[in-house]
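User: Can you predict the 3D structure for this chain?
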Amino acid sequence: MQTIEVTSGSSFGGKLLGISVPSFLQMIELEQKCCTLRITYQGKTGYLYIKNGELIAAEADGLSKEKAAYEIIGWDEPVIEIKSTLPAKEKEILQPLMAILVEAYRLRDEKLNDMRPAGTGTRKLIKLKTQTTAGRRISLDIGTRLQIKIEGFDSTLESIMVGMIPDDHLIITLPFRLSVTEHKISKGARFTIKYLRLGKICLFHSKLLASVDFPQKLLFVSYPSVIHYHKLRHQRRVGIFLPCTIGLDSDQSYPGLIIDMSITGCLCQQKSGEDNPLPTLHIDDKLTIRCLLPGMNEDQELIGHIRNLYRTERETKIGVEFVENLPQVNKIIACYLGY
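Assistant: Here is the predicted structure, written as structure tokens:
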């Protein structure tokens, strides 16, 4: 699990750049942190209040509650500042984080794609892509939070993925709201299940096969034949495995890997246990990454600044935004990414 370091005290600190608000909120939820986030973007400022990993309130430009959260989450790579204290706040946001993120993404895509043409009064639907699951295990990790619509229920519920037998069934927790009310779901009830996975909103249809109450209240639902999804990223990124050296201003170089790349940046990784481990790094530090790009005969330099950092006992990951790259290097990267 990735660890989020925050600055203690009454003032904001721990500035983060180059990481999206949704990604950061999900990290905080996993670690059950209490903090206040100040988000700035193109002259706008918003605040998110998190208690034990749960988003309880939001404020932005005269907006509050869910509307403010939707506005802030829709800001593309803003500056995030962290304060490890939380003012006295009532719980104003009643929906789970998953529901907030899905709706915020929908509203953002609606704006970006001009889904409400003037005079029509109708909204263009997002066209989902489809991927079959035949003969393979779906990419749905244990512990993933699920947003569920159940036939006959008006509200959206939240569950957690706990297991599966591929091509047969999935096992999920009984939504807490139903557990409290002891409401029974009929066998064969139809489900629509949504979740976030690697920058995509994924959706599939299922039905209830069976349920158990001991030792935990669990639901067994049918294995989906297809997954429908919508990519949230508007910029192509490619997962790669490219050995590199990471150079600092001190003229020292350190071994690493590029594991993700886009036209504007990359994600570098160094596993713990390297003979030459990375020193302490900071946001905005300048790096020179040397690697052999596809189609080139010699190592190329990729120059950039650190925009985000993730550290665990097992690895360090460095999000880098490119600057000053030669035109031919940019051309090779663009070609490699399929532009």
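Residues 97-112 form the longest helix (16 residues). The chain has three domains: 13-112, 144-231, 237-337.
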